[in-house]
Specification:
The chain has helices spanning 2-5, 14-18, 21-36, 50-66, 81-92, 110-116, 139-149, 224-242, 245-263, 290-299, 319-323, 328-332, 345-360; strands at residues 43-47, 72-76, 96-100, 121-125, 154-158, 179-183, 194-198, 268-269, 280-284, 334-338. Helix content is 40%, strand content 13%. Helix 9 (245-263) packs parallel to helix 13 (345-360). A 7-stranded mixed sheet has the order 1-7-6-5-4-2-3, sandwiched between helices. Strands 8-9-10 form a 3-stranded antiparallel sheet. The termini are far apart. It is an alpha/beta fold. Residues 49-51, 80, 82, 127, 131, 158, 160-161, 183, 194, 308, 310 line the site of pyridoxal-5'-phosphate (PLP).
Amino acid sequence: MQFMVSRFWNASSAYGQLDGLEEVVELAKTAIRRLTGSAQDDDVVFTSGATESNAWAISEGARRVGTCAGGWVLTSKVEHPSIIDSIERLQEQGMEVRWVPVDRDGNFDLDKLERLLDSNLCFASLMLAHNETGVIQPLSKAIALIRRHSSHCLIHSDATQAIGKIPIACSEKLKELDLISFSGHKFHGPKGIGGLIIRNSVRLEPLIRGGGQQNDLRSGTLNIPAIAGVSKAAEISLQNIRNGECAEVQLVRDYFEERLLAYFPHSFTLGCRALRLPNTSFFGIPGADADDIVQVLAAEGVALSKGSSCSSQSLTPSYTALLMGYSYEEASSLIRFSSSPLTTIGEVDVLLSKLKYHLDH
Ligand code: PLP
């Protein structure tokens, strides 16, 4: 509130500087570095969210491919639309793109990935955790393979779904990522704020030019209330993760899946054999109309979504489910349950009984 009411200055103005707003931004960067295990000399540049961060990473990747004869791009078919749509556009414009497939559990197929690789690979963008299934990809192994074939490749990860939900700081291999996208609203920060983490040695061209804010890397007046919000959210998330919150969140999700099967023995959950985020379940109930369920339960105060909420306006079924080998009908029936540390077993019981009542009547 203070940054909207009493300290509402422009951070770049003399007044804002005098009021210590630059320090507020520095503290927010430190909170993000700590949450993601980044080093002090890794840069954190704030953007309007992960969509912009992804667009920026891809634009830099495309620039590098353009400077390298025979250069090409690696990504997967299950990335978030903000990656897929941008990379498909590059492909339409003539850039070579190779797509990593997934297996039935939704994991990158590492054997097939390895067969795609050669030393002309200039840019790779692979997600850490999936936005619909919650599947945590074998990203460290993928990075090791990529580095073995192309040491100069710029490697980006859209880690938006993982950051703030699981400890991502622990893996040495993830430290080899050059660019990492995140979004504040995935860990209870405000909407409309996110960023790109840039490893110390990596030099990027800006995507958005203008007033030269953020060391000329991302122009535009800094959104101080949102930056202060994401800073606090990062600090709290880190504390919660350290206090073992993931296991507690997973208990609630596992309870949901166990009870779902008891109520609806033919229900199925995507990626349930894979390593997943602790809070996500992407499930189907054969014969049930997912659109109808989401609408009816929304009116009763239960917030479920069809696929990822950012694409729930879309009438096409989950492309990820189709790529995992599910039928069109099965993919159309999917609903995403995602919980937070605030979700209780009691709420899960209410959800399930409403679901049962609705499907029985
Ligand atoms: N990437 C992933 C994996 C996401 O889940 C989302 C949003 O849900 C985004 C990118 C887009 O994030 P934002 O809404 O902050 O632009």
